[in-house]
Design goal:
By secondary structure, the protein is α/β, with parallel strands linked by helices. It contains 9 helices and 9 strands. The chain binds ligand 3US.
């Protein structure tokens, strides 16, 4: 049988090329493969300014013609070859393999996570589309919010990060790619998000290798975060995310029991507060966990698009048992 028509996109880091089957219908919708291919070439030219495509080839191609797309991709691959040849001869040999390569830029990471999602979540109807920060619109909503929160948290190599109820794992991947924390965990109990999370993991690793971009260690765990098996992860985390907006009082209470064990300095970021803002002044007991934590309500600067149309607030709780 004749070999299927392919378009190979060379990696700007010299890793294995990305292979697109022709016709380009990968992901969802007939044109998404072609759009993704052209967008990726644009992103490479943006992320590596030394890579300049000849003439205005990026504005005169026909996504329905294999020949047209083939000549665009050939032009791109030749440019990459020349770029890698130059890089091989100019930078010091060890510099190319320095582990401190630049992290992905914010905008590129959003593009990569979107691409990972489209390839991994092949039927989003299996996901609960009504939860706050729905995974389908992650790029427009949660991504920016998490960027801002990460900036405020001043995360260091000493931090370990945990997303309680991590869904398909978008936050875990974003934190692993954009911070230097030593470990990122996500714990998810439902079957469909876990099945997609496995594919998210594979596509993320494939694409970050293609881009030659570093990322921290992470693990997407299939389980119930209330399970004793995972108490060690909660106890060793220094930053905990929990999107508990839709959690009932019972589940919030069970989380408070676990938070009461956390050491001073640990920070819990949630979409609903675990205790009233000014609840420090009262006797210390579980029904008033506020006595062991400082809480502050933060809302992103105006103008950031939010899932519900109105700007979302979130709460930063810092465990602090020092006297009032
Ligand atoms: C005893 C009892 O009550 N048992 C039932 C309850 C079990 C609780 N244990 C759970 N364990 C593991 N996963 C469980 C359990 N509860 C439910 N989930 C999963 O959470 C997922 C939903 N997730 C969102 C998935 C994507 N991750 C995020 O949106 N993360 C995130 C975190 C913080 C923020 C900010 C910074 C704004 C605060 C924003 C987003 C939230 C809403 C909890 C679903 O896929 C659920 O299956």
């Amino acid at each position: 049988m004749s070999k299927a028509l392919e378009l190979k996109l060379y990696s700007p880091a010299g890793s294995d090329p990305d292979v697109y089957e022709w016709p380009l219908t990968c992901g969802r919708g007939a044109t998404s493969g072609a759009v993704e291919l052209v967008e990726t070439i644009r992103w490479v030219c943006q992320e590596f300014p030394e890579i300049v495509m000849e003439s205005n080839i990026l504005s005169s191609y026909d996504t329905n013609s294999y020949e047209s797309m083939k000549s665009l991709v050939d032009e791109y691959n030749n440019t990459i070859d020349a770029f890698l040849q130059r890089a091989a001869h100019t930078t010091r040999p060890d510099a190319r393999f320095s582990t401190t390569q630049r992290r992905t830029s914010r905008n590129l990471l959003r593009h990569i996570l979107q691409q990972v999602y489209v390839h991994a979540v092949t039927n989003p109807s299996k996901l609960n589309q009504y939860e706050p920060f729905s995974p389908e619109v992650y790029g427009e909503t949660s991504y920016e919010l998490v960027c801002q929160i990460i900036d405020q948290l001043n995360i260091t190599e000493e931090d370990t990060f945990l997303d309680l109820g991590s869904g398909v794992g978008q936050i875990v991947l974003q934190v692993a790619a954009s911070t230097c924390c030593k470990m990122v965990w996500g714990i998810e109990k439902s079957d469909w998000p876990n099945l997609f999370a496995e594919k998210m993991d594979l596509h993320f690793k494939r694409l970050m290798r293609w881009w030659g971009k570093p990322y921290g260690e992470y693990q997407l765990i299939n389980g119930d975060f209330l399970d004793q098996r995972h108490s060690d992860k909660i106890n060793s985390a220094s930053v905990i995310f929990v999107n508990n907006l839709a959690f009932g009082p019972n589940l919030d209470h069970q989380l408070k029991e676990r938070f009461a064990e956390l050491r001073d300095g640990v920070r819990i970021i949630s979409s609903k507060e675990f205790c009233p803002i000014n609840s420090r002044l009262s006797e210390r007991n579980l029904s008033n966990i506020g006595t062991i934590m400082q809480v502050s309500k933060l809302s992103p600067p105006q103008g950031s698009v939010s899932w519900t149309g109105k700007s979302v607030s979130y709460y930063v709780h810092t465990i602090d048992r020092t006297k009032v």
